[in-house]
Amino acid sequence: MSRSRCPRCTRPLGHCLCALVPRLSSRTRVLILQHPGEASHALNTARLAALALDNGELRVGETFPELEAELAHASRRSCLLFPGTGAMPLAELARDGAPLQLVVPDGTWRKARRLLHLNPQLAAMPRVALPEGLSSRYRLRKAPMVGALSTIEAIVCALNLLEGAGRFDAMLRPFEALIEGQIAAMGETVYRRNHEGDPAAPISPSAPAGSSA
Length: 213
Prior knowledge:
Blueprint lengths: L28 E6 L1 H4 L5 H8 L3 E5 L6 H6 L4 E5 L6 E2 H7 L3 E7 L2 H10 L1 H4 L3 E3 L21 H13 L8 H15 L1 H7 L19
Parallel strand pairs: 1-2, 1-5, 3-5, 3-6, 4-6
Helix pairs in contact: 2-7, 4-7
Protein name: tRNA-uridine aminocarboxypropyltransferase
Enzyme class: transferase
Keywords: S-adenosyl-L-methionine, Transferase, tRNA processing
């Protein structure tokens, strides 16, 4: 029999993270497009990010046909937070000061690339990337490359760059609790044997082209 889950954070009721999730306002709109394969994952950081942001939204699917019209009539500039040839450093947009919509694909790198493949309007968007050399706190997934971040870490870093250093750090509280809870559940010995020493994360908007959530 499956355990009862919180309808908001989808965690088992005994491990609900809602009390740790802040509610923050942002001038930047954050639209997270999550591959269905990530939606039921125990380490679903995209949902935590969306819950924390008044101006955030999470959509789950492989195709998003509504996006073409939405992007065409958007009142603010829209950019894809994803590495690639010609991706603009996000810090440059921060100096511009204009309202922005960040579209963030969520999934493994393979799944995120699939989202772009199935949604040409995403692939055609101007891309922005985080600074290189970032370090993840995600210790439960092997990173595909140095500097890979979880989705929530990438969003926090992006918003801090755009709207002020440290303003969105509170979003990481449930993320840290999620990681610590998973480590406690598996036991310190198992964790050290399988994970210690491996930075872990599913998405890295600062990584070279060809990477993904």
